User: What shape does this take?
Amino acid sequence: MAKLALRGVRKRYDGEPRDAVSAMDLEVADGELLVLVGPSGCGKTTTLRIVAGLEEPSEGEIWIGGRCVDGVAPKNRDVAVVFQNYALYPHMSVFDNMAFGLRMRGTPPAEVRARVEQAAALLGIGELLARRPAQLSGGQRQRVAMGRAIVRQPQLFLFDEPLSNLDAKLRAQMRTEIKRLHQRLGATTVYVTHDQVEAMTLATRIVVMNAGRIEQIGAPSELYARPATQFVAGFMGTPAMNFMPCRLAANGAGLAVELGGGARLAVPRALEPAYRAHAGRELVLGLRPEHLVERASGAPADVVLALEVEVVEPQGIDTLALGRVGAHEICARLPAASAARPGARLELAADMVHMHLIDPATGRVIR
Amino acid sequence: MRRAALWCAVAALVFLVAFPFAWMIATAFKPAREIFVSPPTLLPSSFTLDNLTRLFLETRFATYLANSLLVASGTVVLTLAVAVPGAYGLTRYRFRFREAISATILFTYMFAPIMIIIPFYVLMRSLGLINTHLGLVLAYTAFCLPFALWLLRTYFQAIPAELEEAALTDGASRAQAVARVVLPLALPGVVATATFTFILAWNDYIFARVLISADELKTLPVGIADLYNASVVDWGVIMSAGMVVLVPVLVMFLFVQRSLVAGWGAGGVKG
Assistant: This one.
């Protein structure tokens, strides 16, 4: 049974012309770490606040642990929220911050002490318990905020962009720690972020949101390999997927994608059945940068693109080449040892097995 | 050189501010015949407690003092009881005309007391509150509220809503979240408001003069002013009265200044 369920949740703020969240249907299984990801303003934080009870939905129901929590005050929902700006009580010590929720529930002092110390040990903040939040570094504050959530052992953890105030290195470190913590505690968690890397690395399942709606729900690898819409395809992955307007042409036995300027890419046989019905239409071709490789001598000539290299960005582990194919801006992920130079012309072979064709009318990826 | 100039300026300022008080205190301890001697003595040449004794034994000063303490404390309690929830509501709840209401509240503060004293008198008379301390407390509260609301509002606005939301999801009710998280953080604001209110009620002359006529109900400013009306103006007694009036205010400042200045410092939220 789902630990958390959203049924037809819609939210419109007073005086706003459109819904902040609409038609949200979502089930989160026990022990799952579900990540809500999307650009700012997509409704992910609003969704989280509705689950926490900090906002009332205009429509729809929230179920937590098999109980409908309509009109239930936040304190009675048995959820813990970790806020983006930590929201530690500045006038209390770390210990009191973490003990607050337990004390509110009338936990006996001895048990409060034991549980706070246990959580503090788990997070490596045992020696900070006497300090005030102002005396802590950003990473330490983040730990305390997580500690405050953990101590209570709630049914549901809600994280609202918890790492976005940290610098890049600390963020990566805390990300790993959150994942480790989740693996250890197995607590059902909903995690909101705008960072698709965070989503990919942490999630058991990802919900991609856009303009208040769910674009796609799936495991990280599934969203990456088989995005349902152009939005998801473009949002997941850095650098982003390349999109090129094209025409799907039938030539005799096979299909080919025509990019204009004479460039043609053959569609693999295996994909033809799915695309056959769209032959002759103007579509959008999607190809990830890692699916464009430097053409080896003797490779087939029917999947070749000529890239006018403009910028080369060495990443250490590999090198990005950015430039133009005809009128389109393209990025290719090349080996670190690549000889690509700005101003040069580079022959790229497209790995068309990983191609996506998008219907520009609906924005949906054709399957 | 610049340092010397600065010291001169400071000394002049201190002299300007402190001299009347020094003179008042010195006079309070002078015997009657020394008060008008020429040339005047800066310090009492013969120190006496006679003025203070007469102040408490021969006038109703002690009654006025008790009345003032009662009225000023009552005003502080009532003002905070109304202004704290009011200011909280103005910052935390969204409702129609919220900004308009806030602006109107500030606007009412622009009226000088003298402009509203007659309507106030009429109102209090029809309520039967003339010559009562309750009437006076209500009048001061009405007069202090706009400023108190605005002052507290800025303090509440500075407290991030997330702190309260954290408390709410942590298991606190709204009232508990306010009591345990919001008010401790707004304490300097609450103290500032209390101080302001107390001093206004403590020093007020005009409301007390108009709303109170019974001698046993008068507060200090009116009571002391009436000492002048005696056939012989007893400067020694008046000066010692002025001195005693200062004491509660000074004590309150000493007691309160730490929390006024301190605050809690940042660090609870992103910093």
User: Anything to note?
Assistant: The CA atoms of residues 304 and 337 of chain A lie 21 Å apart. The mean pLDDT of chain A is 92.
